[in-house]
Fold:
Amino acid sequence: MTNELTAAGIDPFDESVYRAVLTRRTAVPAELAADLDCSPLRAARALDRLHDHGLVGRLAGVRRRYAAIEPGAAVESLVRARAEELDRVRAAAGELSRLFAAAQAGTAGEDEVEIVTGREALGRWFVRLQQEAREDVMTLDRPPYALTTSNPVESTALGRGVRYRAVYAPEALEWPGVLEDIRGLVRRGEQARVMPGLRIKLAIADRRLALMPLSLDLDGVRAAVIRPSTLLDALTDYWALCWKQALPLDVPAEDPLGEEDRLVLTLLVSGLKDEAIARQLGWSVRTMRRRMSRLLELLGAVNRFQAGVVAARRGWI
Structure:
């Protein structure tokens, strides 16, 4: 598998997809899946990431057809963006040094950084951070764990539409039950990646609040609660670098939807009411509602809007 673009934040599989698009000039996920012997869903997700990186463009039309952007310009833009990210992290080194010095002295600025002590306090803040999140939670996860390896708060937050992106250290996957927990969370919508050499633990909510243990020694654990500041910006940039360098965690995810279920969700997301959807499919309204109830249960959603969000996030529609 090729990996020349890894340093620019493109993982090897995505690079293989990019090269396949280059040879075809334009392609749909199913064609690339056949070329690379993978599922169409995996190819589609790789294309979405390549699109975000500016390496491919989506062509107009109902089908998801993509064309490669000219590599010279596209890759150069990617390299410049990575250089700018590194410059921002470098510029924040002084702020990180200030945090380190404050932690060593046992003091910190009351407005921007708060130091909390003890496993229970760390656990309470982690729960609070997730409960207050409205849009996005980003984490770097590795052992040891202060209280428990499971995170029941995440399932609730995912259910109300909060986006979770987690980078795991390989050591985390060796703890009993952790991989199975991750599989369950991925099925609910978490995006998971793995990165060797991950040395810190970090959680960031909505880019406005972060929690970071100051050491991995859980005896007398101390953690920093970080509010909007250049330090929070630097930690957010660092998380983004880890995310780009990490590899997607291959957690098997089946697509259990049939064509009719997929059509129901598509019509639902389009804003059609029960009666209109039933009419489109030639069903009774009762049948429509029974099928919708089953779909909500399958997706772990509590309402129709959430069902559309979860299905879209999983690439099912």
In short: The longest helix spans residues 71-91. The chain has a mean pLDDT of 81. The chain has 13 helices and eleven strands. The longest strand covers residues 136-141.
